[in-house]
Structures are given as C-alpha cells and as structure tokens.
Amino acid sequence: MSFIIVFMWSFVLWLVLTAGTKGMLWSAEELVAGVVFSLIVGYATRNIIGEKADRFLSPSKWVGFVVYSLGPLFWGMTKANLDVAYRVITGKIKPGIVRVPVDLDNDAQYTILSNSITLTPGTLTIDACPEEKALYVHWIYVRDEYPESSEPISGSFEKWARRLGR
Amino acid sequence: MIEYVIYAFLAINIIFNLLGSFSLHRFPDVYTRLHGATKCTTFGTIFAVLAVVTHALYRLKVTGDPKYLQMALHSGVALVALLLTNPTGAHAIAKAAHLSGVKPAKAVIDAYEEKLRGEAQ
Fold this sequence. Notes:
The complex is a heterodimer of chains A (166) and B (121).
Chain A: H1 2-18, H2 28-44, H3 59-90, E1 96-101, H4 107-119, E2 123-129, E3 134-139, H5 151-154, H6 157-164
Antiparallel strand pairs in A: 1-3, 2-3
Helix pairs in contact in A: 1-2, 4-6
Chain B: H1 2-26, H2 30-63, H3 66-99, H4 111-120
Helix pairs in contact in B: 1-2, 2-3
C-alpha cells in the first residue's frame, strides 16, 4: 500500500518538475524516466512510511492542508513576523522555555503542531514528549510562564493539528 | 501595473530578510537568534518566491514560452521544500544546543532544564 502511495506522489512531483518539456506538456522520455525513478523511490522507502499511509490518499486531508496553510498558518506567521520585527528593532525580549501541555494522540499530530509552532516566529519547539503529552517551547516573549493549554502560544493550531493528523 | 506588484513583493522580502540578518546582531544567544535568522528569512523568502511566480506567470501569458511555466513551478516546489525543512532544521539545532549545555540567555524560565534535571536524579 505505502509502495503505491510513494510511487504516486513521486511521479506527481516528477510531473511538476518536468512540465513544459514538450510544449506545455511532457515528452515521452520524461514520462518513462519518471516512472522508473518513482518505482525506485517507492521500492526503497516501502518500509519507512508505515501502515497508516492511506491518510495520504484522502482528498479531504489535501483540502484541509491547503486551507490550513493558506489561512490560519499564514495569518499566524504574518502576525508573529510583525511581532518579531518589532522585537528586533526595539530589543525588548523576555525569552524562556515553557512547558506546553497538549492533547494529541499520534506522531503525525505532534509533527504538524510542533512544525507549525516552529514556523511561526517567536516560538520554537525544543522537544516534544508524547509520553507526558507536552511540548517544550522556547518563547521569545514569555507572557505566561505556566500555560494551561497551547492557546496562548499557537492559537488554533492544536485544533487543526488534531483534525489533520488523524 | 504588474511590475508594481512584483516590486511590492520584493520590498517585503528585502525588509524581512534584512531584519532577520539584523537580529543576529541584536539578540543575545543561539535560541533567540534562531528566531530571527530562520523565521524572518522564511517569511521574506515566501515573498521572493511569490515575486518570481508572478513574474513568470505574467511572462508566460505574454510570450507563451514554456520555460516560464517551468520557472513558476520550480519556484513553487522550492518554497514547499523550504517550508518543510526549515522548522525541522531549527528544531534540530535548538535541541542539540540545549543538550550540549547552552543555556538560554536572560531566560525567565527554563522548564526543559528542570525536566532534564528531574530525569537525571
């Protein structure tokens, strides 16, 4: 199963990278080379992706990711970038590493949430501890030394991560 | 008209990349510098890619040359790769720095240090 999914996505990436080799479309040589390389990549990584690979096939997840990255994530990045720009100029910082309790179930959700937190300036995930259901986040301006949830750090990201990584 | 959109994107890019570089000078330690150096520059680079894509699509519409389609698509793939690898790299650097004993400067709280000390006992 994961072999087919990796093959499909590698081939899609190949098609994106080689579009325009014959008019606006693809030449036959590029298509054959793409199939060959996608087969190699799919075979080499067949044991790495894991058994829950079919989540990469659900269209609602794709739409969810696009909506999430263009909506809440991009808006969060814009706000936080202006905040960090202000701190660079004025030098007003109050850094610290806080423990953020989160309510997530699997590794994909932890990956999405901690990458979103790190991508937003001003917060930087140092470590994720699924066994104690917490993230350790370096915060450039600590507003709350013992936060009760991820709300003051990341806003609505936790809700989205729970939905997208299911 | 389209030139002004591209200039606006490039201006945002330059401002944020400049602030990111400037933060290396302003901030006291590795963690706070990571905030400026990786995040501000990412945000700037998003707008650099947007400028390239806008230019390429505009030229594609005017000339119909497929090399501009390639230019737009390749910039988009580069942006996705950057957005996926940037937080992973920043996280790896920060964790490695903390585990090798670099303390956050001027920190008001260090919960991770307390956790590590609690595990060591």
